[in-house]
Amino acid sequence: METSPNRMTPEEQLFADLFNHEVSLVTNMDTLTLRAHIEELQKIAKEAKVRFYAADSEEKKRRKSSDSSKPTGFNRSVNEDKISTDAINTIKDRQKRLNKKEKIEASLIALGIDPKAAASLMSAGVIKARLSEPKEDKQSNNIKTEELTIINKSIFNPFEKKE
User: Fold this and answer.
1) Which of 14, 97, 121, 127 has the fewest Cβ atoms nearer than 10 Å?
2) Domain range summary for the chain, segments of one domain joined by +
3) Under a CB-based contact definition with an 8 Å cutoff, are residues 30 and 38 in contact?
């Protein structure tokens, strides 16, 4: 069945409507607000996915219990040894790749920060809130920059041009 370019299926029309609505919402957002919005949408998507899998697994259980008269397939062998399991898990751990955000979060946890606190520190909403707070008095910042210039002048650089 061929569809003309002007006609869309109901699913395509729903997607187009939702997409156009979301584009109109995010066009005027600054980068940090947009990132916070994306994080919120990711949470919503994850929640929907988990709820879908929970309902789907319950449906499969009910379907399986009603099909109990059918013969079952092969059963999984229970003979497992600890060495094989550890070897497989070691390889899997080595293959894991962390993105930049996860590396920073892992380093915060290694410093002794609670994992939940580290995750909340890494969210764009928290960063945006910190940036939107009023600046501290600039006099203390000026003192720090003066101290840094004094420290930089006292360091000997052998590659610096002689005057």
Assistant:
1) 97
2) 16-63, 97-133
3) no
The residue assigned the tokens 């397939």 is 73
Q: Look up residue 155 and give its DSSP letter.
A: S
Tell whether the model's pLDDT for residue 120 goes beyond 70: yes
Three-state secondary-structure class, residue 96: coil
CB 8 within 8 A of CB 16: yes
User: pLDDT (tens digit, 9 = 90+) per residue, 22-74?
Assistant: 999 999 999 999 999 999 999 999 999 999 999 999 999 988 887 665 555 66
> Residue 122 is which amino acid?
M
CA–CA–CA angle 98, 100, 102 (5° rounding): 55
Cα dihedral 14→17→18→22 (10° resolution):
170
Burial call 28-67: b when 16+ CB within 10 Å, e when fewer: eeeebeebbbeeeeeeeeeeeeeeeeeeeeeeeeeeeeee
In degrees rounded to 5, what are phi and psi of residue 111? -75, -10
| pTM exceeds 0.85 | no
pLDDT in the model for residue 75: 60
